[in-house]
Structures are given as C-alpha cells and as structure tokens.
Amino acid sequence: MLKALVVEDELDIKQLLVEDLEGKGYRVREAGNGVAAMQRIGEDLPDIIFADVLMPMMDGFALIETLRKNPETADIPVVLVTALNSHDTQQRAKKLGVKYHITKPWEPWALDMVIEEALKPSRRTPNGQAKLQVYPPKLTVHGKPLNNASQ
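Now predict its structure.
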C-alpha cells in the first residue's frame, strides 16, 4: 500500500484530499504545517507528499527546501496543492524542483493525472529515487542500421 502525506492547514481541504487518497487505496497521514510534516516524515517516509503553500510555522516552500537538503527525502515527489496560481509561485516552485501542482479546488481527474505522473514506476527506483532512462544507440553504417554485433 502506498503512503501519502497531506500537509494542509485548512481542515475542509485536508479532509477532502485525505478522502480522495484513501478512496484510491493510499495509507494517508496528515500534518497541519511543515514542522508537523517533518515530524511525520521522520516517523515514516511517505511515497508522495501533497503540500499547501500558505501554512503557519513552516510554509510549503520551506518544507520543500528542507526535504531537498536531506538525501533520504530529496527525491520524494511533492505535489503542491494551492489556490495560488501566480507566475511568482510557479517560478519559485520550479526553482525548488516541484514538477506537480493542483489548483484548489481540484477535479478528481486532475488528482489522478498528477499522481500517475509523479509515481510512474519507470521514473523511480525501488527506493523512490529518480531513475535515468538510457536508450541504446542506433548505429548505422552508410545509413543502414546495424542490428547485431557481427555486422
């Protein structure tokens, strides 16, 4: 069973996201801010994190900065779940390596799409680290492909 951590200070939003994820079969833990999230992560590493940006004590950006500095948590996919959709927010997220975000309120299909992309098995190793995909080169001689080493 995949583990998700929902980091959100608005109770209604948190509950909706938790229900959506549990309905998809995730074991979900919750935190109301980045400080509480770091405590939960220290107890049990999640497979994916859903984090709001604007939260008390430690906001979503500070949480991501902290995660990226630790080798154990640096590669955990983080999905920003926020009502902020400004250029500045998107640029800051991009600088932190955040590839996924959902705008509040979200549609169920959007959540499905983001989860599928963030957790693609082909992009992650068993320990959750990003995997480099290397394709074999296509060798040609005078424009004709070489199919095996004896050619």
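The chain has a mean pLDDT of 82.
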